[in-house]
Amino acid sequence: MSGKKVVVGLSGGVDSSVTAYLLKEQGNDVVGMFMRNWHDTTGLLEDDCTWEEDEILARMVAKKLDIPFFVVDLSEEYRKRVVDYMFAEYDRGRTPNPDVLCNREIKFDLFATEARKLINNYVGAYVDIFIATGHYSRIEKTVNNKKETVYRLLAGKDRNKDQSYFLCLLSQEQLAMSLFPLGEVTKPEVREIAARLDLPTASRKDSQGICFVGKVDLPVFLQQQLKAKEGKVIEISKDGFTPPAYPEGLPDQDIDTETLTTICAGYRFTPQSGQVIGKHRGAHFFTIGQRRGLNIGGKTEPLFVLFPDVKNNLLYVGQGHDHPGLNRKGLIIARDEIHWIRPDLAMQPGEKRRYQVRIRYRQPLQEAALFMREEGMYIVFEKLQRGITPGQFAAWYDGDELLGSGTIRE
Questions:
Q1: What is the rounded CA–CA span in Å between residue 221 and residue 213?
Q2: pLDDT tens for residues 253-272?
Q3: Quick one: average pLDDT of 20-38?
Q4: Structural Rg of the chain based on CA atoms
Q5: Per-residue DSSP letters for 30-65?
Q6: What is the pLDDT of residue 305?
Q7: What does the DSSP assignment read for 312-324?
Q8: CB within 8 A of 152, min separation 6: which ones?
């Protein structure tokens, strides 16, 4: 074949199945490879699909498409690089996004390394290979103003399914050897192709929950390493909390670091700020904005977590979607947790730029001003943002292009 040699991460889902089909139709030499990353069923919700079913379906798809199929077990490294990271982040009182880390550490690093070894042994010689997944995103190769070759990570054509956010930690080296054919099609078109080909995954539902683990009862899952510890739930009334005075809209001029810190820092509460209304099983099992799992009734409006104080094992909550403690104007990212997909466009200390930012998957892009300082980045939004959560990722875009990201410190 004259096309590329491509290893497709077949997951047992419809997206990766159609990815393999499209690449083969384009004349590429395609191999299917299934990642076995998790065996433990602790905390899995009843009737949730397991990796055994995923593997069977992936094998059936490979047979249907007449492509070679292999299985690689990456579970040990997955636990070290992704699951242990999850436990450590929750233990710190932060809420991680394992799917984002999984893409950088597993799919486009460890899996890619194993795929190269497999193909080299399979072919009997060293060959360049590409890694393909079913992400709804696009890659564009171009030349910047310094005449350097760069790879742009772009939103997928299907705006309702765009998954560029999950790829926000990828590097130029990883993008250079990656293919995302679904970036040019929509989810309904993918379903139509799968149905026309009578693929065994055509009507399978999209996976949910933690990447390669599944849908879990989070507290039960986390108790594998994090102990339950009873603590107080403290309610902060709407009238008893006044946020800082925020500037309207976006700042037109630079702002000093002290003012930026006031605008962007997370809220601080004390037991004296509210009233004890119940008990919890451990502050590290909760995240900002969470509603379920509090098990406290008798309130006029639903309760939401405002802040899990892991250090003191206190859980601060407030009533109502409109509680001012749920909304903030900005966030802070430590300098060592900033990642530029486009290093050639990285901001330097003292710079200010306007980009569009999202702080969670599928959130509409939000207008924001980014301020770079020696100690890190301050992001000030045009509008108040609900549920800014330490440990999650903020990703900034220039139009369709995702330029960089960082872990929210506070």
A1: 10
A2: 889 999 999 999 999 899 99
A3: 92
A4: 23
A5: EEEEEEE-----TTBPTT---HHHHHHHHHHHHHHH
A6: 96
A7: TTEEEEEESTT-G
A8: 139, 140, 141, 142, 342, 401
102 given a catalytic annotation: yes
Q: Which two tokens stand for residue 354?
A: 């306007």
pLDDT tens, 200-240? 998 888 775 555 455 555 666 776 777 889 999 999 999 88
First to last CA, the chain: 51
Q: Which two tokens stand for residue 99?
A: 């799917």
* Mean pLDDT, rounded, for 21-49: 77
- Map out the domains of the chain with their CATH numbers: 5-220 (3.40.50.620), 227-407 (2.40.30.10)
Of 340, 23, 368, 381, which is closest to residue 153 (Cα–Cα)? 340
**Stretch 272-290: mean pLDDT, rounded?**
93
Instruction: Tell if the pTM clears 0.85, that is, is over it.
Output: yes
Instruction: List the catalytic residue out of 49, 168, 211, 264.
Output: 211
What b-and-e string marks burial along 18-40, b requiring 16 or more CB atoms within 10 Å of the CB? bbbbbbbeeebbbbbbbbbbbee
Cα distances (Å, whole numbers) of residue 233 to 257, 279, 296, 410: 34, 5, 9, 21
Question: What residue has token string 């076995």?
Answer: 36
Structure tokens at 203: 């009507």
Q: Which of 123, 221, 102 is nearest to 168 (CA)?
A: 102
Mean residue pLDDT of the chain comes to 90
Q: Which of 49, 102, 168, 264 is catalytic?
A: 102
What b/e sequence results for 155-187 when a residue is b if at least 16 CB atoms lie within 10 Å of its CB, and e otherwise?
bbbbeebbbbbbbbbbebebbebbbbbbbebbb
User: Has 49 been annotated as catalytic?
Assistant: no
CA distances from residue 274 to 60, 279, 326 in whole angstroms, order as listed: 58, 14, 16
Q: What is the DSSP string of 346-385?
A: ---TT-EEEEEEESSTTPPPEEEEEEEETTEEEEEEEEEE
Confidence band of 176 (pLDDT split at 50, 70, 90): very high
